[in-house]
Each structure stands twice: as C-alpha cells, then as structure tokens.
From TrEMBL:
Coiled coil: none
Protein name as annotated: Nitroreductase/quinone reductase family protein
Hemerythrin-like domain sequence ranges: 156-283
Lineage of producing organism: Bacteria, Bacillati, Actinomycetota, Actinomycetes, Kitasatosporales
A Pfam cross-reference name: Hemerythrin
Gene3D superfamilies linked: Electron Transport, Fmn-binding Protein, Chain A (2.30.110.10), nmb1532 protein domain like (1.20.120.520)
Catalytic activity annotation: oxidized coenzyme F420-(gamma-L-Glu)(n) + a quinol + H(+) = reduced coenzyme F420-(gamma-L-Glu)(n) + a quinone
InterPro entries, A to Z: F420H2_quin_Rdtase, Hemerythrin-like, Split_barrel_FMN-bd
CDD domains named in the record: Hr-like
Family affiliation: Belongs to the F420H(2)-dependent quinone reductase family.
C-alpha cells in the first residue's frame, strides 16, 4: 500500500479502537510494528490476518507478505527476518509477539488456510512469480509491574510465567531429541525466539519495577535482589548462547548439542527456583 494510504488506515484504526469506516468500513485488520532491518527505526503496517492454532495448540495469527501481488517482498517482511520481535495492535489490545516465517511445505499449508479464509490472496499469488510468504505471530506473555496492593496476584502470575518458560524449555529439549523430523528446525527456532523474547520482557519488568520496590520495602533482602539482578545478567548471556546453539542445529553433533543445551537449561532452572524461593513469600505477605 502507498505510505499515505497506510497512514490513513493507521490513524483511523487508532482513533476508533480498531474500527474502520468510510472506504475501509468492514475491513478487519491489525497493525504490525517492526524494527527496520537497516535503520533500526519502528515501522507500522496495516495487515489482514487469519486466526489459527498450531499443532501444539498455541494460538497464533497468520499474516502474508502479499504486497498486493507485487514482485518484491514488503519491507515489514524483510524486517522480521532480522528482528523477529514485533508489536501487534488488534482492536483495543496491543501486545508483543514473535514473528516466524513459514517455509517449504509448512508455508504452502498455511497459505492454503489463508486463501480458504480470504480467497483474494490467491489472486495476489497468481500476479507474481514470487512465493508470497506467510508469517505466524505468536503472542509473548506479558510481565508488567503490578501496584503494591496487588502483589499477591503478581505471585500467581510469576508462577504462571515461570511454568510457561519451563514448558518452552521442555519443548526445546524434546525437539533436540528428534530434530530430524520434517520442519523441526523451524519449530525449534520458533520456540527459541519466543522463549528468549519472553525472558527479556520478564526480566525487564522485574528490574524496572518489581525488584526496586521490594528492595525498598525489604531492605534486609538487599543481598537477595543483588544476586537476582546479577543472575539476570548471567541469564542474558545464557540466552545469547542458547540462540547461538539453535543456529547450529544443522551442523552440530547431536551429543555435544544436547550436553550444551542441558547445561544452559540447568542455569535457567536454578535461577527460577531461587527467585521463587526468595520472592514469592514477599509477594504473599501483601495478602
């Protein structure tokens, strides 16, 4: 779409909580904000979408890089290949997501789903020799600072987030054990991107809001919070190693790969356990 056309849709979308009128009435769109592959600047694009659920029961939204059937991939698609963490606006909701481009047979299967819901995309594909990409948007669980009078609720949320992160680690471990299955490399990398993005959001919220508050209200726990924040830095390094590990899936020797992953997983599990042991009682005190 031309930039001025995009701007009109974006303005109307945000002004009317996702509802469009006039020439756009009846359109059901989301706004996708990506980080420029070269510029590093944010770019927002209106896109149609299809609701879907993957084979593991995870909800996702499917978007296509149709670009109206042009012979060039849209800029937003090029951006997500470099920076897969995006922001999605749908109606009145805004959330972070991991954007995963489907490949091969998986791309064909998902494109068929999109065409079944919106047949016009088939016409776009006929208009170009370019294979129109399909991208799945997986929502990243939020972890935001909760006001002090709701710290008991935050305790439950902390457990839920940790359990979800543990399930992603388990899925990664299972995938490493059978990584020759068709399409598994893409799925493993999807898990890794989602997991690493979620960890960054989770720890960012704790460092910026929760931990400083608890450190002020529980000065006797200063050493605990100093250790937790130091562990966050260590976890950041571990996540970098985890992503590098997954990038070597096609070439690494299976035994060495699994041993390295188990070491990284152990460090993360130790961190989760210590945080739960030390922080949850403090949150429960607010009940």
């Amino acid at each position: 779409m031309p930039l001025h056309f995009n701007s009109q849709i974006i303005d109307e979308f945000r002004t009317n909580a996702g509802r469009l009128g006039g020439p756009f009435e009846g359109w059901v769109l989301l706004l996708l904000t990506t980080t420029g592959a070269r510029s590093g600047r944010n770019h927002t694009t209106p896109l149609g979408f299809v609701e879907d659920r993957d084979e593991n029961g995870r909800d996702r939204l499917l978007v296509t890089g149709s670009a109206g059937g042009s012979d060039r991939h849209p800029d937003w698609y090029r951006n997500i290949l470099v920076n897969p963490t995006v922001t999605v606006e749908r109606g009145t909701e805004t959330w972070r997501a991991t954007a995963v481009a489907a490949t091969g047979a998986e791309r064909d299967r998902l494109f068929a789903k999109v065409v079944a819901a919106a047949p016009g995309y088939a016409d776009y594909q006929k208009a170009t020799d370019r294979i129109i990409p399909v991208v799945a948007l997986y929502r990243i669980p939020e972890d935001t600072y909760t006001p002090p009078n709701r710290l008991d609720a935050l305790a439950d949320e902390l457990i839920k987030i940790h359990d979800w992160l543990r399930s992603e680690l388990t899925a990664l471990a299972e995938g490493l054990g059978s990584r020759t299955a068709p399409g598994l490399t893409v799925e493993l990398r999807r898990h890794c991107l989602t997991f690493c993005s979620a960890m960054a959001v989770h720890h960012g919220g704790e460092d910026a809001g929760l931990f400083p508050y608890l450190a002020r209200t529980h000065p006797e726990k200063a050493e605990v919070f100093a250790r937790l924040q130091a562990e966050h830095a260590t976890v950041g390094r571990v996540l970098d190693e985890l992503q590098a590990l997954l990038a070597r899936l096609d070439d690494a020797e299976p035994g060495a790969l699994r041993a390295e992953f188990d070491r990284l997983r152990g460090e993360l599990e130790t961190h989760f356990a210590y945080e739960e042991e030390q922080v949850l009682p403090l949150l429960r005190e607010s009940v």
